């Protein structure tokens, strides 16, 4: 049966909509958490599903720009999606996805992106895996670099206030280098990345900046967890984020993190497979990279999305696109000279919109999609041709789950 879905009108509705996902994290959201979420989303971007007066589901979206090859585009950052357990598998999510994607389209955002709690949920709504992210755990004895590093910069601790000022330009530089980086507002920095949560009060996250050649060229946010067993340190250092604007700066901030005394293991999550760390380290095998899906991307307006990114290679390709959930995208598209237009020319590749979302940021190739039975190659060589167009010099990287 269809559910009414509309944006929340007040704090009370937002609270009940948020508690749909909150069900999975314990009790109702505390007041200060609500304040933060309302600030980040705005009431109007939190959709609630109603059965009568009862709220039975919620789906939120953040408003940001996402870096795409050669630029950035407005994107809905879909998050805090949930259905009350009393109403699961009755179409609540489907109704919320319908309302949300219509809203994203009406706002003129060509893209939507999300981190999926399970890989089986969002493909049917047109989202495809667009980046890979993985964890590593680096034992102290395996933390040497392959080539000794000559350190030229100086790392120093900074306060959260200073970090606001110093870290944002480094993050912005990353978004120029790599697709998949979302723009962070001051509110985001303050309430998400630099906020010390209550549970960290006794041992809070630390902020360090690397000064090199008169500028902040890298930063790191990390926590330490002390430990001692059988007379030996088992302490852990957990890197929440480490970003550099240049190869030297990235190497230096990592050398700093790996050299902190009395730490047995350094761990970090969400690294893309082409992160420089793997070649900096002498023994990358020992860090046991565990790769998983990262950002999922949905092209909401295919024409604007395809025309809104840059392409590495020239040439053209004709796509036959299927999009059952957003049929306005369906049909044949010709991509040439960086522009996507409707065409009657014969199709060369046929695919669903989720597969195009996978290829969009350059994180998955058309050849991989063809071999994974997600793309039909109707003309020999079309996948390779599309790949020379879509490939980007660095893989997409989204360093934070939103
Ligand atoms: C994921 C969740 C929101 C699904 O909500 P729901 O209202 O039960 O979903 P719907 O009834 O609208 O299902 C829509 C379709 O998705 C499928 N589906 C829903 N959840 C699924 C899951 N976890 N795995 C696989 N398929 C799923 C349904 O079978 C249905 O398929 P159909 O269209 O072929 O019939 C709900 O299970 C939930 O709240 N989970 C916990 C929180 C969570 O994971 N949120 C996502 C955060 S990214």
Set down the secondary structure blueprint.
Blueprint: E1 4-7, H1 11-22, H2 31-41, E2 46-51, E3 54-68, E4 71-83, H3 92-106, E5 111-115, E6 128-129, E7 132-139, E8 154-157, H4 160-177, H5 186-193, E9 206-212, E10 215-225, E11 228-229, E12 232-233, E13 236-244, H6 247-259, E14 265-271, H7 277-280, E15 290-293, E16 295-299, H8 302-307, E17 316-322, E18 331-336, E19 339-342, E20 349-352, H9 353-360, H10 366-371, E21 375-377, H11 382-390
Parallel strand pairs: 4-5, 13-14, 17-20
Antiparallel strand pairs: 1-2, 2-3, 3-4, 5-16, 6-16, 7-14, 7-15, 8-9, 9-10, 10-13, 11-12, 17-18, 18-19, 20-21
This protein binds coenzyme A.
Task: Describe the protein's architecture and organization.
The protein has 402 residues and is an alpha+beta fold. Helices cover 27% and strands 32% of the residues. The protein contains 11 helices and 21 strands. Strands 1-2-3-4-5-16-6 form a 7-stranded mixed sheet. Strands 8-9-10-13-14-7-15 form a 7-stranded mixed sheet, sandwiched between helices. Strands 19-18-17-20-21 form a 5-stranded mixed sheet. Helix 3 links the parallel strand 4 and strand 5 (111-115).
């Amino acid at each position: 049966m269809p559910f009414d879905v509309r944006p929340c009108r007040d704090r009370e509705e937002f609270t009940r909509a948020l508690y749909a996902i909150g069900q999975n994290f314990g009790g109702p959201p505390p007041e200060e958490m609500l304040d933060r979420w309302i600030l980040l989303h705005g009431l109007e971007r939190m959709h609630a599903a109603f059965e009568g007066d009862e709220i039975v589901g919620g789906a939120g979206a953040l408003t940001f720009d996402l870096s795409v090859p050669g630029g950035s585009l407005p994107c809905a950052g879909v998050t805090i999606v949930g259905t009350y357990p009393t109403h699961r598998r009755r179409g609540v999510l489907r109704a919320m996805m319908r309302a949300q994607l219509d809203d994203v389209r009406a706002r003129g955002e060509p893209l939507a992106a999300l981190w999926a709690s399970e890989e089986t949920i969002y493909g049917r709504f047109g989202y495809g895996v667009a980046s890979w992210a993985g964890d590593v755990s680096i034992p102290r004895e395996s933390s040497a670099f392959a080539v000794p590093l000559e350190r030229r910069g100086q790392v120093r601790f900074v306060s959260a206030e200073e970090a606001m000022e110093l870290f944002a330009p480094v993050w912005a530089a990353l978004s120029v280098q790599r697709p998949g980086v979302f723009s962070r507002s001051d509110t985001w920095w303050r309430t998400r990345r630099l906020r010390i949560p209550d549970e960290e009060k006794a041992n809070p996250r630390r902020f360090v900046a690397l000064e090199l050649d008169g500028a902040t060229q890298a930063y790191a946010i990390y926590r330490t967890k002390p430990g001692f067993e059988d007379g030996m340190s088992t302490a852990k250092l957990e890197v929440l984020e480490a970003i550099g604007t240049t190869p030297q700066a990235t190497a230096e901030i990592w050398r700093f993190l790996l050299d902190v005394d009395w730490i047995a293991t350094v761990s970090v999550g969400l690294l893309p497979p082409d992160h420089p760390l793997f070649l900096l380290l002498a023994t990358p095998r020992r860090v046991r990279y565990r790769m998983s899906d990262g950002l999922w991307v949905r092209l909401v307006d295919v024409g604007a999305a395809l025309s809104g990114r840059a392409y590495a290679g020239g040439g053209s390709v004709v796509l036959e696109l299927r999009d059952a959930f957003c049929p306005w995208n369906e049909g044949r598209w010709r991509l040439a000279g960086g522009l996507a237009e409707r065409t009657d020319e014969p199709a060369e590749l046929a695919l669903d919109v989720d597969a195009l979302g996978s290829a969009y940021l350059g994180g998955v190739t058309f050849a991989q999609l063809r071999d994974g039975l997600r793309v039909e190659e109707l003309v020999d060589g079309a996948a390779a041709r599309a790949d020379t167009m879509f490939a980007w010099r660095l893989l997409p990287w989204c360093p934070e789950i939103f």
